[in-house]
Each structure stands twice: as C-alpha cells, then as structure tokens.
Design goal:
Elements (H helix, E strand, L loop, with lengths): L6 E4 L1 H6 L4 H15 L9 E3 L7 E9 L10 E9 L3 H4 L4 E8 L6 E6 L1 H19 L9 E5 L3 H13 L3 E6 L3 H11 L5 E6 L3 H5 L4 E4 L22 E4 L8 H6 L2 E4 L2 H9 L11 E2 H7 L8 E4 L4 H18 L3 E3 L2
Parallel strand pairs: 1-6, 7-8, 7-10, 8-9, 10-11, 11-14, 12-13, 12-14
Antiparallel strand pairs: 1-15, 2-3, 3-4, 4-5, 5-6
Helix pairs in contact: 2-4, 2-10, 2-11, 4-5, 4-11
C-alpha cells in the first residue's frame, strides 16, 4: 500500500503564524464568492442545539472544483463549530471551531485545523470584497466608517477597512465602553486608519458614515433590528456581519442593491427567523462581481453569512503555507 500524505494538526497559534497576508486573504475571499456563483457545493449549515439553552452546533461541508481536470486543484473539507454563550462566565471562548481538510482526489484527511482565527479573517475578507466593490465614492474628504461591536469580528474588520478605504476615519461602538475604547486604540495603530474614536452610542457611531459594519453579539441582544434607514446616509453601504441583530429589514427592502454571499444559506436562515422581514436578495455577491454590477444610487446592503467554503479555501492556503514552513504537528495515522 502506498504511503499516505501526512496528517498535520495546526493549533490556533500555528494558524495565526501562517495566515496569508491581507491582499491574499481578499483574493481568497473573492475566489470563494466567484465559486459560489459557479460550480461550488455548499449546503446550508446543518444544525444541532445541545444544552445549555441558546447553544448551537453547525456542520459546514464545502467543495470547490479547481481548473485541473484531475481534481488535484480542488478544495474539499468541513468545519464543525459550536457556540455556548455561557462559556463567557467560565472565562473560556463562547465559540469553538475545528476544520477537517481532505485530499480532493483520494479523500484522505490531510489537516485538522483550529478554525478560530480562520473564522475571524475569512468573514472580514468577504466584507472587504463587498466594501471594495460598493463603498460610496467620496470627494474632498476622508471616507468615514463605523463598526458596531468590538469583539473578535470587530477587531478583524479594522485592518480590512484600513486597507480598502485608505485614510478612513473610524467610529466604534460597543455596549462595553472599555471594549470600544480598546478597539479604537488598536485601530489608531493600523495602516490606512487616519483616526478612530469610540462613540457613546450606536446611532452616533453610524451617523454620517459611508460604510457601516455591524458585528454585535448574536446572543440575547436587548433589541433587534434597531438600525433603521433614518440612522443612515442616502448612499451608505451596510455590511451586517451580525445577521439582523442591528440592521432592520426595512433597510434591506429599501436598498438599491441587497446582496448576500450565499442565497440558499440566507433563505434557510430567514426561514429559521434570523432575517425576519428581509426581502429576497437581489443576487449574490459573487454573481454581482461576475456581472460587473455597478454601485446603484441609494443604500447598499451586503450580508456575509459566514460560509464553510471560505473556511475550506482559507484552510487550504494555510495548510500549504504551514507545510512549506514546517509548522504544525504531524499526527500518526
């Protein structure tokens, strides 16, 4: 029997060490979005709901065909993620994610990867593709952006915003003022960020912003869909990373363009009550990019749902970089 390829385990620290640089992450995200508009396979998340209340687990298998007819350039794998909000009381993270990567030709497992850092960076990169495509043009002043939510996703979006909106002035809001201040302080050290400050409330942060990223906690918000059109400028781009936690359905209904990264996953989540009142999307982000869809007049809403194909594509790039650098632990079979 021929030797099987090595099975590499990558910790969170390993993954961070070999995370592709930001321009490559944006390119990977665009590859994912284009693939979703083509031959990629990505079923809606398969969910279970273990104890305690409010917890969930999602299985996220994904497959992206490559250009090589042999299948050698394909990517295939699955992310398994569980969220338990009560973990915060124990001082451990609320979300844990593991990714299994397989050889696309033989199906042999090739990597087991802590997917926490991937989750943060692939979502922010997807947002970056949308911001690059549909942020409103500004003239005679610096672009302005707001981030609602100063957690992991808020932090991962800061370098992306600085990269795609160079010279941007950033407002940050979080229900915990100390977290907002900390994220604003971090943002002031990031390339492309001209200035950053914490805002006293969400509406103040959003006011006059060209781009608004909402990345608040999904778990038991005091109110949902509070950010209505009267909070926003006429040409604002809204990127609701937190599903409909902040962004009201009326904003999507009134938008000149409403796009999502994956239509079937959006519809499944709407059926489950995550996007109550939202309209059908105009198209997917990948479809709009392939069609060269220009920025329309009025609001634009671009919703990255967090898709398993992005995890797999990022994991493939990370595993290759780890193998080249000799990083990770080789596990016996």
């Amino acid at each position: 029997m021929p030797d099987l390829p090595p099975l590499r385990y990558l910790t969170s620290t390993d993954v961070t060490a070999v995370m592709p640089p930001l321009p490559e992450r944006l390119a990977l995200a665009e590859t994912v979005l284009r693939g979703l508009a083509g031959d990629a396979e990505l079923p809606p998340k398969i969910g279970v709901h273990p104890r305690p209340a409010g917890s969930f687990g999602h299985a996220m298998p994904a497959y992206l065909p490559g250009v090589d007819a042999s299948g050698a350039a394909d990517r295939v794998g699955m992310k398994w993620v569980l969220a338990v909000s009560q973990n915060n009381e124990l001082g451990i993270p609320a979300i844990h994610a593991t990714l299994l990567l397989n050889d696309p030709v033989t199906g042999v497992p090739t990597a087991i990867i802590d997917a926490g850092p991937i989750t943060a960076e692939r979502t922010a990169a997807t947002s970056g593709v949308a911001i690059r495509a549909w942020a409103p043009a500004v003239d005679g002043r610096a672009p302005r952006a707001a981030i609602i939510g100063a957690g992991v996703q808020g932090r991962s979006h800061v370098p992306v915003i600085g990269h795609v909106l160079p010279g941007v002035r950033l407002a940050v809001f979080d229900r915990d003022p100390a977290r907002a201040e900390a994220l604003a302080a971090f943002a002031r050290t990031v390339d492309g960020i001209e200035g950053a400050a914490a805002a006293p409330d969400a509406r103040t942060a959003v006011a006059n912003s060209d781009v608004v990223v909402t990345a608040a906690s999904f778990v038991a918000p005091p109110e949902r869909q509070v950010m209505t059109g009267d909070w926003l400028g006429a040409e604002t781009l809204v990127v609701p990373v937190d599903y409909a936690t902040y962004c009201a359905a009326s904003v999507a209904r009134d938008a000149g363009l409403f796009v999502v990264d994956h239509r079937d996953q959006f519809l499944a989540n709407r059926e489950a009550g995550q996007f109550d009142g939202y309209p059908d999307p105009t198209m997917t982000i990948g479809e709009a990019i392939l069609a060269g869809t220009p920025r329309p007049d009025g609001l634009v809403v671009a919703t990255p749902l967090g898709i398993g194909l992005a995890d797999v594509v990022f994991a493939d790039a990370i595993a290759r970089r780890a193998a080249s650098a000799g990083i990770g632990t080789l596990l016996p079979r």
